[in-house]
Amino acid sequence: MPNSVLWAVDLFGRVYTLSTASQYWELCKDGQLEFKRVSAATQCCWGIACDNQVYVYVCASDVAIRRREEAYENQRWNPMGGFCEKLLLSDRWSWSDVSGLQHRPLDGVALPSPHWEWESDWYVDENFGGEPTEKGGWTYAIDFPATYTRDKKWNSCVRRRKWIRYRRYKSRDTWAKIPSKDDPKQLPDPFNDLSVGGWEITEEPSGRLSVWAVSVQGRVWYREDVSHSNPEGSSWSLVDTPGEVVQISCGPHDLLWATLWEGQALVREGIGRNSPTGSCWSIVEPPGPENGIMHVSVGVGVVWAVTKDRKVWFRRGVNSHNPCGTSWIEMVGEMTMVNVGLNDQVWGIGCEDRAVYFRQGVTPSELSGKTWKAIMAARECDRSHSGSSSSLLSAGCFFGDEVKGSGESAPSDTDATSEVERPGPGQHLPVESLDNSRNLKESLASGPVASRTAEGVIENACPTEGGPGLASTPAVLPWTNIDLKEPKKVPSHSAAGFPETTGLSSMGLLPLGLEEPYGAEDHPLWAWVSGGGCAVEACYVPKWFAAQSGLSPSVQTLSLSIMPAQTAAWRKQILQQLTERTKRELENFRHYEQAVEQSVWVKTGTLQWWCDWKPHKWVDVRVALEQFTGHDGARDSILFIYYVVHGEKKYIHVFLNDVTVLVPLLSEGKHSFALYTPERTRQRWPVRLAAATEQDMNDWLALLSLSCCESRKVHGRPSPQAIWSVTCKGDIFVSEPSPDLEAQEHPLPCDQMFWRQMGGHLRVVEANSQGVVWGLGYDHTAWVYTGGYGGGCFQGLASSTSNIYTQSDVKSVYIYENQRWNPVTGYTSRGLPTDRYMWSDATGLQECTKASTKPPSLQWTWVSDWSVDFSVPGGTDQEGWQYASDFPASYHGYKTMKDFVRRRCWARKCKLVTSGPWLEVAPIALRDVSIIPESPGTDRNGSSIALWAVSDKGDVLCRLGVSALNPAGSSWLHVGTDQPFTSVSIGACYQVWAVARDGSAFYRGSVSPSRPAGDCWYHIPSPPKQRLKQVSVGQTSVYALDENGNLWCRQGITPSYPQGSSWEHVSNNVCSVSVGPLDQVWVIADKVQGSRSLSRGTVCHRTGVQPHEPSGQGWDYGIGGGWDHISVRANATRAPRSSSREQEPSAPKEALGPACC
Amino acid sequence: MHYPIGLLFDLLASSSALPWNITVHFKSFPEKDLLHCPSKDVIEAHFMSCMKEADALKHKSQVINEMQKKDHKQLWMGLQNDRFDQFWAINRKLMEYPAEENGFRYIPFRIYQTTTERPFIQKLFRPVAADGQLHTLGDLLKEVCPSAIAPEDGEKKNQVMIHGIEPMLETPLQWLSEHLSYPDNFLHISIIPQPTD
């Protein structure tokens, strides 16, 4: 899980963050400003500073925030001078926006705020719908406005071209002031509260954020156009309210609550994709008439509130359909504020001790959680004197000398240890006083508070002494003699944190007063907390509480109260006796042979088998696995399947050294797996077996896999040359290539390759021969291979003990709601009798209702509710409907007279948690990745390994610092593009090819080890009338795949002209392609016909690929179906060429021509 | 008697000459004295129940109950296949105790004697005394099996054996439990007569 941070403001207005992976609060990098309120999202944090201005803190990322500005240059032809800038009077501006209605001269386009900078100068866009234009990017038409073409015709009277320029947001990792250049009349009065949310209303790439603010006068404002790509938004707009609002909270989804001055809560209704500000307010009464609500905070499906008597309340029954909920439940604890973060986790600030509390046990089924737990993290600046005791405790080794040694030197009991933890005042004073005098200076010198109220300064400075760590002995501290004395006592019932009292004043005025004793404790005093950017999984709690709980290792044996002398005596004796015993019982019998040399053992069980005869169905079978161990220790195994047909007992058997792969099958109801041998691979008919429980299946799978690996003597981590592949279920397989796999003559048939499974769940795996392996999940998370093996269902023996981590993946399940129009009632869910199901899958053949649709397999669980998917191809209307004349047809996103049916797509997310040798590469999600293949014979010692990727937003990225020792690399370098990209591939000689979203290809020039990102893109048109979707580059050859499954090979590539000249069609029926460092070509074929059935998703190897014939001759079919992806880019091994190679090209093994069914 | 083989050796054969000759019977199973194990699963179940009993004593079963089924499986597979690292990766957790305590709640132990009819002695015994002093092996024997230790002045009549060695009676019990327990997490202590050479 990636790390995320909790934001908090202490009583002095300093902003701190606490990472889920850390135990220390870190002072915000831009520590100059003092803040009253902060509200965080994952990418950014909004805040109101003590100068009452609004600031946004955008977290730094390797990918730049860039926006494209466009302007059009328009020209008209006249007989005298040809095309010129002189237009007709009725024409548009000679420089305009796309519609032509707005005048837009290049020098009139200004940066929106000082936080932006231009990336480059204006330039002409020469790419027109995926096709390059000649003649300076001009496109022609008969007249404005019309359809433009890139060809100049006899009747082309006007022409235009697009100029583009990028601006980049530069104020990252710092507080950027939101410019208040709005109309002065409308300028909102100073803000009092602010809340950020709404990021789940729209999905990527728009990534809209809702920013709501409350002014001192109680009015509510909404910030327009805030999104990832426009972090500041554009302007404030007023939202009418029925009363004076004091505080507001906006959830990640469509919940928005506010509190009124009078103590009721306001709930916004009608918030949605098309109306981010909602439509109307409704009022919710507080829990008691005299006990008004002071503070509310909302999540996705929860509302928490604090009333004026500091009691905490949970609102029952809140959801999207009923944002008001049903009733209040009182919770334990007294808080000044609560905040709901991601996953509906809750934080609060204790009323008495001003500590940040975390609500433990909040799960989807128990949203109110169990208990409050104080976060015990210290602040970064206190770290110097909170010495760790862990150094004293050595690992629990058994009888090592070092144990004895440190046992003698360690303090004789636990008290002593804890004394070291808390050094006396004398020890830490110097650090302390330095720290504090610095803080003092800072607060004196800085901030609007200092300039506004002198009193505030004293207030601010003074409590620093009450800060953590030192307060235990305040009297001893030398600097208490400075004229600061005690903080001014303010009665605590003056309601600190009440919006009415804090209104304009700074948080520095909050009373410390009576709570002085707490200042003596070792924790900071907090004023505000925001968990909107902090993802805490219900099952995994950060280490913020480590000081309090948990079983610590028993290594404290060392600090047991035993005299060192004694220690030595009994320890020494045990050690000595054990040594003697070993000698007595073992050493004298070394020459004895192993008693057990041969063994046969059997595991039996009951499974179901998908029978070989028609009608195919599951039949109950007895299964037995017999394992033999031969004299040489080698094991062999046979799997017997006993079945009964027509009352006759029969069996089939499989030698496990003959098995090529064991693969779990995708099935909604059954725990099933398939077993392939070369013969069964050719027939496209594996042995399918199903177990009654998941555990049972995993046991069998693990045991059979282990037996297969043993009989083939394959174990441990895969070699760097390994070939990786992924099934449509997300299971990962790896195969050790034999040297003759890529032999020129008689290559090993690829149905004989042995595949074994690795733990984890991925959509894509890419590797190179230096052992760098990256994977991408269905949720676009990037993962790097750790060098372990096993995980998933392979526990125990088949798994490495280290390098296995938890991995999760999320994907969506889609169903369709279909409706037919009838003249009386319009669109209804009553179709014709011949129609498809009114709730169906995409094909319309299967009925899929919201209630009956299950996650793809039993490993997946739902994590969201059904919601309309607006991102379907073809576009949708405002409610997500797509229209067509009839089922099945092509759908469009608007209604015409001829449309009689409509459909919309519903999506629901499900999640899988497994384990495997993978570690997450946070934080950027990726769509594609490519690692430079190692061509044979090259040695790239020292230089880092080139790795390119495309982010889920379409940004092209180049990873820096990747090496065999550090396969994850260090950081991303963003490579600018004019449009989003979908695929990238880097060849052995640093040729970088990529595919853009418009289906055309690009070649990146001048990429080299010293210039990892290259210099510019060369546009390469796609094959005629085809849109490319994937590209793969080997040593020299370049293959691309279009959206219709055609595979193309680039012709005419020479060292001096790496872009090549044309595309040559190689094959149809291809889903994905991988070209390796030997220019070997492997694909996943869509459909392959076997002797017994058809299989989709089959691994195929291109035969007859020669340097002078890079497109090859035929296909050799390997494992399938159900395969989704393969990477052969790590395999650079080839058997030595035989001398007869030049005489005649070897005949392809299988059918010539494209694979088809 | 379903005892670990090492214990059987300590208890019955520690003075016999090595190698230890074992007679394996293939018929007339002593149904009266021993439980018949029809399958490997039964042995696994028996082993796991010992582990659970030990953890009930050590941590009120908290640790073993928090484990997943696959962890339990790994304990058994590790033992079965003689893979110490696999086994210990999980068993380590069973050997931990809260930082604020000085040891387990109770020490899981069994004391076996050849001289009595009783199969073994098992009682609740804490690793730390009320005054914070650590209990030693001697303390334990004094409490639950005083006959095993020789009087101050008397002649040593018995050997106290664990894993084929005689730890000193001053050895802290907590340490023994952590380091000299059998795979089932019990400390199996054999009291055998002092051999008369």
Can you describe this structure in just a few lines?
Chain A: Residues 404-434, 1131-1157 are annotated as: Disordered. Chain A is mainly beta.
- CATH fold-level assignment of the largest domain in chain B: Ubiquitin-like (UB roll)
Mean pLDDT of chain B: 85
Which residue ranges of chain B are poorly predicted, with pLDDT under 50 across at least 5 consecutive positions?
A: none
| Order of strands, widest sheet of chain B | 2-4-3
> For the CA atoms, what is the radius of gyration of chain A?
34 Å
Strand pairing plus helix content of chain A: what structural class? Answer: mainly beta
What percent of the residues of chain A sit in helical stretches (DSSP H or I)? under 10%
The rounded distance between the terminal residues' Cα atoms of chain B is 29 Å
Which two chains have the most extensive interface, and how many residues on each? A-B, 32 and 40 residues
> What's the CATH H-level homologous superfamily of the largest domain in chain B?
Phosphatidylinositol 3-kinase Catalytic Subunit, Chain A, domain 1
- The helix/strand class of chain B is alpha+beta
Percent in helix of chain B = 25-40%
The rough form of chain A would be described as globular
Give me the oligomer status.
heterodimer
Description of the molecule:
- By secondary structure, chain A is mainly β.
- Chain A is built from ten helices and 72 strands.
- In chain A, strands 7, 8, 9, 10, 11, 14 and 15 form a seven-stranded antiparallel sheet that branches. A seven-stranded antiparallel sheet of chain A has the order 25-26-27-28-29-30-31, with no helix packed on it.
- The model of chain A is unreliable at 384-521, 547-566 and 1139-1157 (pLDDT under 50).
- Chain B is an alpha+beta fold and 197 residues long.
- Helix content of chain B is 37%, strand content 9%.
- Chain B has seven helices and four strands.
- In chain B, strands 2-4-3 form a three-stranded mixed sheet, covered by helices on one side.
- Chain B is globular, with a radius of gyration of 18 Å.
- Chain A binds chain B through residues 396, 398, 414, 550-554, 556-557, 560-562, 566, 569-570, 573-574, 577-578, 580-581, 584-585, 588-589, 592, 695, 795-797, 801, and chain B through 18-19, 59, 63, 69-70, 73-74, 77-78, 81, 83, 85-86, 89, 92-93, 95-99, 102, 132-134, 163-168, 170-172, 174-175, 178-180.
